[in-house]
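User: Can you predict the 3D structure for this chain?
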Amino acid sequence: MHLKEIIESAWENRDLLKDKDTQTAIRETIENLDSGKIRVAEPADGGWTVNDWVKKAVILYFPINEMETIEVGPFEFHDKIKLKNKYAEKGVRVVPHAIARYGSYVSPGVVMMPSYVNIGAYVDSGTMVDTWATVGSCAQIGKDVHLSGGVGIGGVLEPVQAAPVIIEDGAFIGSRCILVEGVRIGKEAVLGANVTLTSSSKIIDVTGEEPVEYKGYVPERCVVIPGSITKKFPAGEYNVNCALIIGKRKASTDLKTSLNNALRENNVSV
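Assistant: Here is the predicted structure, written as structure tokens:
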């Protein structure tokens, strides 16, 4: 039986978790996640497809594991899932105290400063996960992305049909940005410091004569800063958070130069 079919059956009937073949299928799925052979979400037809059955395997992985003590030198942890290892073989630079959980994929060329990558996440080549940045469960991070210090990328396991946070190739995420609830950041977009986006956040392009509003998606190469918008409540009018698109990162073959110009021209704090 195919892995997907076994996982789907166990999802509907948890008694199957006692079955050895079911446990083997779940462990094989997590191993494939860990090695990057499969992904929770993947590009498809100009958008992204979420593989629900893989998320189900991640959820089912917890009840088939026992709690155990994990010792790393003088450090001790107590959990059901082991940590990734053999980083030299994987071609990943890992600075103490960076941690990635088994079942996450970290591609060759990634640099992990003291940070955290959770199970189910996918971090592609050339990406920098800077100090105290967190990559939540099942989040998808593209190639050559920079997650600045303190960035919080939200995780998602349930509901299984919910899309994970997706950061596409070449994006720059400024310090202390928070991205949750399946938000997607387009290729080479630049988010200034402290931008917070949820699925319902207003993302307003203010570069034209009339505002253009997006939700849940920052278009490619957009430069975004925190903003506020007035909203009426029974008790009166108050300003609530939004994000403002204030320009475009130029389509340049030299992405570093393009990024520096975008930040300088728009006076963006990162």
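The first helix runs from residue 3 to 12. DSSP finds five helices and 26 strands in the chain.
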